Amino acid sequence: MSIKIHLPRSIIYLGTAAVTLILIIFLYSANRDNGSRSLQKAQRESYRLGTIVRITLYGDDSKKLNNVLDLSMKEIERLENLLSVNIPSSDVSLVNRASGEYPVKVSEEAGSLLERAIEWSERTGGAFDPTVGKIVKLWGIGTESAAVPDPEQLKEAVDMTDFRKVSVLHEVNGTFVQTAKGQRIDLGGIAKGYITEKVKALLINEGVSSALIDLGGNIAVFGSSPKPGKWKLGLQHPFMPRGEYFGIAEVSDVSVVTSGAYERYFESGGIRYHHIFDTATGYPALSDLASVTIISEDSTDADALSTALFVMGFERGISLLRELKNVEAVLVAKKTEGTIVYVTKGLSKGFLLKDPAMKKAPEVQ
Question: Coil, strand or helix: which one is 3?
Answer without folding.
Answer: strand
